Amino acid sequence: MKYLLALVLAFASFGTPRDADAHLATFGSWEITREYLGELFPEATDFLSRDVTYTDAQVAAIEKELGFSLYPEDKTPTFYIAVQNVGGKRKLLGVAIFIDPRLQPKVIGGSVLRLEVGIAVNSKGQIHKIRVFDYRGNLALTRPAFLDQFNGMKLDDKFVIGPKIKAVDGEAEESQLVANAAREALYLMKVSLGKGAQK
Description:
Elements: H1 3-12, H2 30-40, E1 46-51, H3 56-66, E2 78-86, E3 89-99, E4 107-108, E5 111-112, E6 116-122, E7 127-133, H4 144-147, H5 172-193
Antiparallel strand pairs: 1-2, 2-3, 3-6, 4-5, 6-7
C-alpha cells in the first residue's frame, strides 16, 4: 500500500478541510499543541485534523494486533495532517498523533510523572520524527540520541528495546513505552487512513 495515496485519499475525504485550531487542543491550548506539532513537522505551514472513533470491533482488532489495551483517548484519536503551502498549492508532508502511554505510578517533585509522545509519520509510512513532551524523568529519554533511533522505521519493523534500539540507562520500561507508542501510531494510521481501513 502506498501511504502517499492513502494520505491523499484521507485528505480528500474531509470535504472542506478544517484547520486544527478548530479542535480542542491536546495540551490545554491550541498554541501549545501547535508548538509541539511544529517540532514534529517544522517545515509545515498548516495542520489539518481528523477525528476518528473506533467501533468496539475495531478496538478489539487493534488491541489484538498491538498486544495491549487501548486507553480511552486512543479509541477516539485525533490525527494532525501536516501540509506545506507552496505556490498556492498544498503539499502533504505526513501525519502526526500524540499518544500518552501509561507509566507505573511515579511521583517526582510532588507531581505524577507523565509521558506524552508525539509521533510524526511521513508519506511513505515511516517514522519521520518522535518527540517526548513534559517529561520530568531522565531527560535522555527526550533527546535525539535516543529518539532518532526510530527514524525511518515502518510498521513491519520490530519495536523492541534491545540490540538495535538502545534503552536510556535506568529507564528501560519508559524506553519500551516510547517504542510501543511509535508502533501504535503507525498501526492506528494504517487502520484509519490506509486503504484497508475498516468502516
